[in-house]
């Protein structure tokens, strides 16, 4: 029997992990894998309601959950402290519960898992999610000649070769890694979407009454703002959109604080831009009020390994997308299936060209909606992701 510990430095109480990893774990547990989850939770998300809801869901599937507190201040001290606590706790749980597979999400968790693997001889799945050293360098947090960059970059390369199974988000990064390193097995599993939650539906009466935007053209963005996510460029795109569509609306649905977002919106747009936050269960309802989903992400080397969650959610709700090039496999999916437009550069001339292209695409009406949904079903469904993970676990069980 496979007894796996899933280690994540993000919390299950955070919206992204709740809607992504937790769904994989629940579905895999129903297929016979016994899971123990170890997460690092941020204090601000540790409400009684969050904890009770998640614990109830996991208890129903006999999934055990332990968490440690995530420390953010004084990172040169807090990160090593969290890692050491994680290593000790993973070894303790592994011995007590006879864990035979360690499934680590990201590089910091790979440090914790690799120590236990080295001591106890377990199998390890390295679920990379992205290139941590490159992401921090591209974000301007680390210099590429700094000691911390070199240490993390070296560790990532070591974990890729040390792991029994390596999981990446894109085919582009898989090709690069296969050519550069000696890896055992690489599986591509993009960020998938729960197609039961994200579906083509009429928005709720509550939302329709709160936001009277019937017959308006609605562009929507969901997710974080800042670092990678290019709000000024999306606002510039919306400015050109206002010239092409009568009475448009731009909904920004984000957990980022409003006081960070609102001041960046030009005065002439404030009446047509809605800034809101929503529980993960309500995001699909907002998407069903929209006509197009937008996602502009800083194009850089590390983003070759990324696949934004929002793309699958947009498409699953029948929304064509406006994205920029250079982000994982997204450009190929959008262009090959004609489910949106791809911005090649962030210029006014390019925006006008792609908005004209979007107008033509939208003339297809329901046929376009159905095609978007079909692409999500074929390439980005939670069911497909779970089946891919199941094959990874089956290989480990056979060896």
Total of domains? 2
User: What is the chain-wise order of helices and strands?
Assistant: EHHEHEHEHEHHEHEHEHEHEHEHEHEHHH
| Protein structure class | alpha/beta
Please state roughly what percent of the residues sit in beta strands, choosing from under 5%, 5-15%, 15-25%, 25-35%, 35-45% or over 45%.
15-25%
Characterize the biggest β-sheet.
7 strands, parallel
Return the CATH class of the largest domain.
Alpha Beta
CATH architecture of the largest domain: 3-Layer(aba) Sandwich
Radius of gyration: 22 Å
Task: Provide the residue-averaged pLDDT.
Answer: 93
Shape: globular
Please report the number of helical segments.
17
The level of helicity is 40-55%
Q: Which SSEs are present, and which pair or pack?
A:
Layout: E1 3-8, H1 15-19, H2 21-30, E2 34-41, H3 48-60, E3 64-69, H4 75-97, E4 101-105, H5 107-120, E5 123-127, H6 132-138, H7 147-162, E6 165-168, H8 171-180, E7 186-188, H9 205-210, E8 217-222, H10 231-244, E9 248-253, H11 258-261, E10 273-276, H12 283-287, E11 292-295, H13 309-316, E12 321-324, H14 330-337, E13 340-343, H15 348-362, H16 366-379, H17 382-398
Parallel strand pairs: 1-2, 1-4, 2-3, 4-5, 5-6, 6-7, 8-9, 8-11, 9-10, 11-12, 12-13
